[in-house]
Specification:
Helix content is 39%, strand content 12%. The protein is an alpha/beta fold. 41% of the residues are buried.
Length: 370
């Protein structure tokens, strides 16, 4: 049986209902249950969930949010004490109430699945460890070499079918578009920016420290680009607030261009390489055979698949040698075939066998927290 906090987005609910069907039943929780009596772990869990919550209220608002998460953790913990054979599922689950729900399940040794849309059309992320940088995706290139060695189909170009139907996101802002138009023939690196408040940026920025630090690092590195090159930047179509203030120093350098009008994938395709913190467009750049520089924490930040950048000096050096930045096509093919054939279940059309495999994996990996 699957237990999940109710969502009000049809696509999310469809995923959980499919999981329930695959597991022989499930229950949508209209609210996460509350419980007043604490567990020994309650205080630490509340602090952790609050620290990772997307919204960080102040004053009384913060106290009330912490109280709500405390009650939800306690209530969910007792729910799972009564349903140890169930599996807990939640959307994203990186912070706040949904993290409290999933952590309560983990603390009771109940199987967990975190869900999120995959970076590719018609696919879904279902992972017992978490999503994004906290996923269970192996980071050791030797894993993919061994896996691919078992079947020739795991080394070919089959993974490219995942990119069919990829289109740029529609914009929520009048000053950010997806227009077709001519792009310069001069060489450039392309950086698609992320939503500054997204958990990918706030939790997994790594050495950059967040959007401000990321842009500062790019501005410094742009000065090292070869003569005639520039860095092309585009704000995220879903970002509600402009980054014009943070981008101004980069524009003043004369080595950075902000193009919020042109189609994101057209800029990616015309570039000589892509620079990301941990954006899914880094993965999507693989379909255009582009080298990718990854600065933040990402499950695809693997040597050969991309070029991992560990500090400012490394970024400066990579920009200086932009024309020579590359990747290992074999390593990339093995990694992407594994994502295609193993990691991302199909939801269009729905692959029930893959959902059952994810549930079995979650139950195999359930652990009771110390």
């Amino acid at each position: 049986m699957i237990l999940w906090p109710g969502e009000f987005v049809a696509k999310k609910e469809a995923v959980f209902n499919a999981l329930a069907q695959a597991d022989g039943g499930g229950r949508r929780l209209w609210t996460i249950p509350w419980g007043w009596r604490d567990f020994p772990e309650t205080g630490a869990r509340v602090d952790w969930c609050m620290g990772r919550a997307k919204r960080q209220p102040a004053g009384w608002g913060r106290w009330l949010k912490a109280l709500m998460i405390r009650l939800q953790y306690n209530g969910a913990r007792r729910l799972f004490q009564r349903n140890r054979a169930a599996a807990a599922a939640a959307w994203n689950g990186l912070g706040g109430s949904r993290l409290a729900f999933l952590q309560a399940a983990r603390d009771e040794g109940v199987a967990v699945l975190a869900a999120e849309l995959a970076p590719f059309p018609g696919r879904i992320t279902l992972d017992w460890a978490g999503v994004n940088a906290e996923s269970s995706v192996p980071r050791d290139p030797a894993f993919y070499t061994a896996w691919a060695g078992q079947d020739p189909a795991r080394t070919g170009e089959g993974w490219r079918a995942m990119g069919a139907g990829l289109v740029a996101r529609p914009s929520r802002r009048s000053d950010v578009g997806q227009d077709a138009g001519a792009l310069p023939e001069t060489p450039f690196l392309f950086c698609p920016l992320q939503v500054p408040s997204d958990s990918q940026v706030t939790l997994f920025a790594g050495w950059c420290g967040g959007m401000s630090g990321f842009l500062s690092a790019l501005g410094q590195a742009a000065a090292h680009l070869p003569q005639g090159w520039h860095l092309r930047v585009k704000e995220h179509p879903s970002a509600r607030q402009s980054l014009a203030g943070l981008l101004a120093p980069l524009l003043a350098s004369g080595r950075v261009v902000v193009d919020n009008a042109s189609d994101s994938f057209a800029q990616l395709a015309a570039s000589r390489g892509v620079v990301v913190l941990n954006s899914s467009m880094g993965l999507q750049a693989f379909f255009h055979d582009k080298p990718v520089l990854v600065l933040g924490e990402a499950f695809f930040k693997q040597e050969g698949v991309v070029m991992p950048v560990q500090d400012q000096a490394g970024l400066d050096q990579a920009f200086a040698g932009a024309a020579a930045v590359g990747y290992d096509p074999g390593a990339r093919a093995r990694f992407m075939n594994w994502l295609d054939q193993v990691y991302y279940p199909r939801i269009d059309p729905l692959d029930m066998a893959a959902l059952r495999a994810k549930l079995a994996e979650a139950r195999l990996n359930r652990v009771r927290a110390a």
